[in-house]
Amino acid sequence: MIQLEHVSKVYSGVHKAVDDCSFTVEDGKITGFIGPNGAGKTTTLKMITGILEATEGKIFLDGDDIRKNPLEAKKKIGFVSDNPDNFLRLKGAEYLNFMADIYDVPSEGRREKIAAMAERFEMTDVMGDKILSYSHGMRQKMMVMGALIHDPSIWILDEPLTGLDPKASFELKEMMREHAQSGHAVLFSTHVLEVAEKLCDQVVIINRGRIVFQGTLDQLREGYPEGTGLEEIFLTVTEHA
Amino acid sequence: MKTGLEGFSSSKKKSKWQGKFGQGALWAFILVCLLPLLVMLYRFGGTAYSMLAPVGQEGVALEFAFYVSSLVSLMLGFPMVISVFYMTDDVEKLLYLPVRPWQIVGAKFTISLIYTYLSSLYFLLPFLAGYGVKAGAGPLYWVFSLVAILFVPVLPLIYGGLISMVIMRLFKRAKNKDFLTVVGVILALVLALGISTVTSNMDMDEGSLMTLILEGHNSMMGIMNGIFPTLRFIARAVAEDSALSALIFLAITAAALAVFFLIAEKLYFAGAMGMQEAATKRKKLTEAQSRKLGRRRSARAAYFWKEIRLLLRSPIYFMNCVMLVFIWPLFVVIPIAIQMGRGEISGLGAALRALDYQSDTVVAVFLFVALCISLCGSFFNYVAGTAISREGKNLSFMKAIPVPMRTQLQAKLLSALFFCVLGTGGYCVIIMAVFAVLFGLPWWTLLFALAGSVFANLLQCSLQLLIDLMKPKLNWENEQQAVKQNYMVVVDMFLGAGLTAGIGFLVFKAYGWLSLPLIAYAALVCVLLAVLSAAVYLFVMACGVRRMNGLEA
User: Fold this and answer.
1) Interface predicted TM-score of the whole assembly (ipTM), two decimals
2) pLDDT digits 0-9 by tens, A111-163
3) Per the CB < 8 Å rule, is A75 touching B397?
4) DSSP one-letter string for B428-484
5) Residue of B175, B292, B296 for testing the chain A interface, max A β-carbons within 10 Å
6) Scanning A203, B268, B289, B482, which has its CA 20 to 30 A from the CA of B459?
């Protein structure tokens, strides 16, 4: 479970990128984090993962305060950033083993786990190649695999489906569902409302740094005439915020 | 030009006042670091004039300065040119634009030239100023000096550009393109240095040399041209206010540029197209490979090996941060080998055999040389000096993983130390082992040299890391910007030089005050390095963790 309590982030002492955000990502659910460009999604995700320090407020990951107990909190997270162009000179297998070492994954069963993930994402044949030689989608798959190597209880994914082919996209969505069904929390940001509609149990909408809605999609539709599209509702919510 | 010069600015958003104050303090600090060297070069220029003017050979001093500057521009510029021309991410973005190859090469050449000015200016400007002031030079001297500063680095960079284009054309389809490129660069550097030494006419006999000196009127100019034939003209132009020589220099340089662009028109695209392609095997890992790659390590060891792999596999990082610390002996060995081949150094073997290798003095000299090499070797190694900058936007990874920042900094420092000690202490130990086997140099000196090397390099690397932590360059689009547009690297170099000179000065003073055997001073320096390195290391670790927590990518 992820809990944010009155979290704010101010850049350079003047620009408030996130303003008094409070929301909860519950266990057993997939939560979509939606908002227009520059709304504060990535800043919020970076604060949750400990990459940025919140100017105000508290963030708890399965009860651990990210500021007071960062190492324990970080061990619980599997984070996929929006930029898959990392560690390009490492081979796929080297990268995954590096991530496994960093997250202290036991050697027992490690190779089997990597092989299973590679099989699922159809990456088995390129594990010995450098990530530099991968396409954008393959790099994205590699980052997802690296983030999940230590079986984290909390998944945080920033635009994870960008660049993935239909098969990989389907597999990742399946994995997210499985993870949520096993009682864990999944938080992912997206611009694609159709994905959010099909995948999410609840959504959090952020606009200009403030949370403007949190709840289920049915709750979001309440108050709008039947048949109104999610896109229209989203535009109304963010425009009137 | 636009794509090449981006990123000179600061990487972090700050308030206006903070930014201005920080920049001012930083430049003041840089100036303080540079000042001793600038003064030394200024004096050197004046002294060279005073010594050579009475025999009418003052122009040789200028030619020597231009020759050294050209050689350094070639040595440092060549790896840079190949990186700027072919390995930056903007290459693919430029290829689909409706521009001619020579236009792209022209822009990239200009960028390389500007980078080169950053280093050649430090050397040439104070030297020429010292010379000119001492000579009471007129306005034409200063005009032609400016021409020299602007155009002397052109020819070395043309050489660099031409060799780069040939190498990239040859290795374009090669499987291990990155590796072959690096090997090609090293071979080309060796070749350039060899040709330059062979073609310079400094091997004349004493009689001819004396006749030449006595002729006066700068008759000796031209003896050290080597592969830079234009130098005699610009040296004459500056020394004798000769407008004709200046025009010849400019005309030859312009012709060389025109030829260079003509060749670029034919060769550049052939090497640049598909440059970003990486070899792929598309083969399932074997059981043995999988087992080897899947070996479990501690977080610190995994981080260390990750750093080593990225430094070795990224040609830009390898050529700019690592390579020089390994190939520097070539710059010493090649000229000596050529001179030995010409029979100019005779009796070296006999002189070495005549030494008493058990005596304290000889042993102390060996130890001092080893310590000095270790202290100086880190001037050419920027692994620690770019450790944080190289992360760029990936700094967020460092913050997101559950590994203490202290451990990550230790791994980064260790990777720098690994290369530095190998490239300095490693060579010393090998040479001393040879002397131990052949001449009976005590074996314990090897241990001493290794320990001294570790302390000396730990001190230099910790200082470099500290400086990079103070002002890392995180806002970059391609790796080239992280290492070449990072002017803090220059601060590292001069701070390291200052530290080495300071330790040397202390030893010199102590030698005057105390009457200890020479070997005791070597031991004292080693202890001093141990204490200093431990203090700086602890300081970096304490401040570094706080600083890293405050940094935002």
Assistant:
1) 0.89
2) 889 999 999 888 999 999 999 889 888 998 899 999 999 999 999 999 888 87
3) no
4) HHHHHHHHHHHH---THHHHHHHHHHHHHHHHHHHHHHHHHHHS-----SSHHHHHH
5) B296
6) B482
